[in-house]
Design a protein that fits this description.
Helix content: over 70%
Radius of gyration: 18 Å
Number of helices: 10
Distance between the termini: 42 Å
Number of strands: 0
Largest sheet: none
Length: about 230
């Protein structure tokens, strides 16, 4: 790896993390008189924003989280990497690096004592930014979205749908880049997204196994996502 690539990675990680630290749910909540960290699950992500602030708050949180992810990742993929003459493989790697940094910033924002969201909406935006380069990518994105909708519709567990869909990253990487020179690096980056999602959903996984996870649309006011 050349010095220029290392410098690019460092700058991408820093920029991605700072973009990720823009905690949309927390900011939207403050502007509407809510401290989302002390309501519902205490999570600043889209699901808790929807449950504590309603459809408008949830939509604003989701939109903001998508935007803060798409700006740096698409800038890397569509502008910076082409300007530097990077190959398709290296461009994909740098997009994943930037996107992973955004997810880490979203999940662990420094100014909120590293207590952030669970990174699913942000990861979904990275999926779009990193794999929308081809028709095959769009087909896989559509398939992933369909799987998520079907799982949530059948089980009413948003967490279960999320935990299944985050396997998109390694599946896409294997499908598209299994013969790439840097395949091991690309696969490791892809699995990092999946691993982060499972780490942040540890409580949800436990409750799914116990049968106590809250279902979407449940009338039970008691929050069990902490």
């Amino acid at each position: 790896m050349m010095y220029g690539e290392i410098l690019f990675i460092i700058l991408s990680v820093l920029a991605g993390y700072l973009f990720g630290c823009f905690s949309t749910g927390y900011i939207v909540g403050k502007r509407s008189g809510h401290d989302i960290r002390s309501e519902g699950s205490g999570n600043i992500g889209t699901t808790n924003a929807l449950r504590t602030m309603g459809a408008k708050g949830g939509a604003l949180t989701f939109g903001g989280d998508l935007l803060k992810t798409l700006i740096p990742t698409l800038a890397v993929r569509l502008m910076i990497c082409p300007a530097l003459g990077y190959s398709r493989e290296l461009t994909y790697m740098m997009t994943l690096v930037t996107g992973l940094a955004v997810v880490i910033g979203h999940n662990f924002p420094f100014y909120l004592k590293f207590k952030g969201g669970k990174g699913i909406a942000v990861s979904a935006a990275v999926i779009v930014a990193s794999s929308s380069e081809s028709a095959a990518g769009w087909i896989m994105i559509g398939a992933g979205l369909l799987i998520f909708i079907l799982v949530v519709a059948v089980t009413r567990y948003v967490s279960l749908g999320s935990l299944i869909v985050v396997w998109y990253f390694p599946v896409y990487t294997v499908f598209q880049y299994r013969s790439a020179h840097r395949f091991a690096v690309l696969l490791a980056l892809s699995l990092a997204f999946t691993g982060l999602a499972y780490f942040k959903h540890a409580g949800n996984i436990r409750r799914l196994l116990e049968g106590t996870e809250r279902k979407l649309g449940s009338g039970d006011k008691k929050e069990n996502e902490r």
